[in-house]
TrEMBL record:
<feature type="domain" description="Protein kinase">
    <location>
        <begin position="29"/>
        <end position="331"/>
    </location>
</feature>
<keyword id="KW-0547">Nucleotide-binding</keyword>
<protein>
    <recommendedName>
        <fullName>Protein kinase domain-containing protein</fullName>
    </recommendedName>
</protein>
<keyword id="KW-0418">Kinase</keyword>
<keyword id="KW-0723">Serine/threonine-protein kinase</keyword>
<dbReference type="InterPro" id="IPR008271">
    <property type="entry name" value="Ser/Thr_kinase_AS"/>
</dbReference>
<dbReference type="InterPro" id="IPR000719">
    <property type="entry name" value="Prot_kinase_dom"/>
</dbReference>
<comment type="similarity">
    <text>Belongs to the protein kinase superfamily.</text>
</comment>
<dbReference type="InterPro" id="IPR017441">
    <property type="entry name" value="Protein_kinase_ATP_BS"/>
</dbReference>
<keyword id="KW-0808">Transferase</keyword>
<keyword id="KW-0067">ATP-binding</keyword>
<feature type="binding site">
    <location>
        <position position="58"/>
    </location>
    <ligand>
        <name>ATP</name>
    </ligand>
</feature>
<dbReference type="Pfam" id="PF00069">
    <property type="entry name" value="Pkinase"/>
</dbReference>
<dbReference type="InterPro" id="IPR011009">
    <property type="entry name" value="Kinase-like_dom_sf"/>
</dbReference>
Length: 394
């Protein structure tokens, strides 16, 4: 049972059935409808009959996962091997290596990309924070390219629909401050787990039924080495790239500071309803990010302008840190709305990832969604990605 009192059910063999009335089931999940589609596939709305709660079942491409892992030196086991995770949290997959190295050895010999990331998934399943979407279960069909992740559902959808071509209505200051604090708390928690999100943007900030912001979509996340904390591959959405990413052959970059920059772009979007940098092409966009300063409207709160300038500092060494963000006058409204302490925010850090956690990270299922996906695609033929009802972006 997880710390929220929900049973994490591990199923050795699952199947899809369809009743005479057309109800489709995946074990204890009743598939309701398609929420949306995107680059990673289809997102289904489902009812978990064990808990009588709605969930989102998200498809994820193993081919893309394989490519992503190939870019990590030695895969996740190479990153973790031989080090602790700090604060006495255990060595995660490295602990398995210390205990005979069975998991690492199996991953090294396996052709299945899922075996390379079982340790990562084991960590993600144990994350427990109010502002980080909860991953309940991961299902892998060895006969298909996709694996399927069962997440808590965020009924109110994305924080904001914004892009290079599309502006949005700015949020009221009080709501923007509330959501910004929640983003900071969630990202701080991830960073304390040595996880850089790498794709922070309004699309990946969803709002739950009770109005809580949840950080989602770890498709390009990096679990990095605490002692180094760097990445050398570009990832995420170009409009949210930091200047140091917009340079060819940029070498190793601070993963945390890349996230800090993207937090700044997100706050700019929330405050003004548009992106701070734009361009007629990717090269124009990169040049804008590298060399131009954002435009601020007349009468802007000087505290907000100061915060944005510190978040969007071109030199990463000049960028504001998470500890400084916590006490910034705009964030706390001059101390009237202080954030919970770092100790309180991170008290539910994962203390140990056992060999059992790694082994049970992914449930193998057979011929899971072959029929289900075909039916869904036929029913949604012609439906635009991200259309109304897309509560959990793919």
């Amino acid at each position: 049972m997880d710390v929220r009192g929900r049973m994490l059910k591990e199923t050795l063999d699952a199947k899809v059935t369809e009743a005479e009335g057309g109800e489709r089931r995946l074990n204890h999940y009743v598939i309701k409808r398609v929420l949306g589609s995107g680059s990673f596939g289809i997102v289904h709305l489902a009812l978990d009959t064990d808990s009588n709660t709605l969930v989102a079942i998200k498809e994820f491409s193993k081919t893309k996962l394989r490519k992503q892992q190939a870019m990590k030196n030695g895969g996740i086991y190479g990153a973790f091997r031989g080090r602790g995770r700090g604060r006495g949290r255990g060595a995660a997959p490295g602990a398995a290596a210390a205990n005979g190295g069975h998991a690492a050895l199996a991953a090294a010999k396996s052709d299945n990309p899922i075996d390379l990331v079982r340790g990562e998934i084991a960590i993600l399943k144990k994350l427990n924070h109010n502002n980080v979407v909860k991953l309940f279960e991961v299902l892998d069909d060895p006969n298909q390219d996709s694996l399927f992740m069962v997440f808590e559902l965020c009924e109110k959808g994305a924080l904001m629909d914004i892009s290079l071509e599309r502006s949005a209505q700015p949020l009221p200051t009080d709501l923007s401050r509330q959501y910004f604090q929640e983003i900071l708390l969630g990202i701080e928690y991830l960073h304390e787990h040595d996880i850089a999100h790498r794709d922070i943007k309004p699309d990946n900030m969803l709002i739950s039924k009770d109005g809580t912001l949840k950080i989602v979509d770890f498709g390009v996340s990096e679990i990095f080495t605490r002692e180094i904390g760097t990445v050398n591959k570009s990832a995420g959405s170009p409009a949210f790239y930091a200047p140091e990413m917009c340079v060819a052959r940029h070498g190793d970059l601070s993963a945390k500071l890349l996230d800090i920059w993207a937090i700044g772009v997100t706050l700019y979007c929330m405050s003004f309803g548009r992106l701070p940098f734009n361009g007629r092409s990717m090269l124009d966009l990169y040049e804008s990010i590298r060399s131009q300063e954002p435009q601020y409207p007349p009468g802007i709160d000087p505290r907000l302008k100061d915060l944005l300038e510190k978040l969007l500092a071109k030199n990463p060494d000049d960028r504001i840190t998470m500890d400084q963000l916590r006490v910034h006058p705009w964030v706390t409204d001059n101390g009237r709305l202080p954030m919970v302490s770092k100790e309180q925010n991170c008290e539910s850090l994962v203390t140990e990832i056992t060999q059992s956690d790694v082994d049970a990270a992914v449930v193998q299922v057979r011929s899971l969604f072959t029929v289900l996906k075909a039916v869904s695609k036929l029913k949604n033929l012609g439906r635009a990605p991200g259309s109304s009802g897309d509560l959990f972006p793919a």
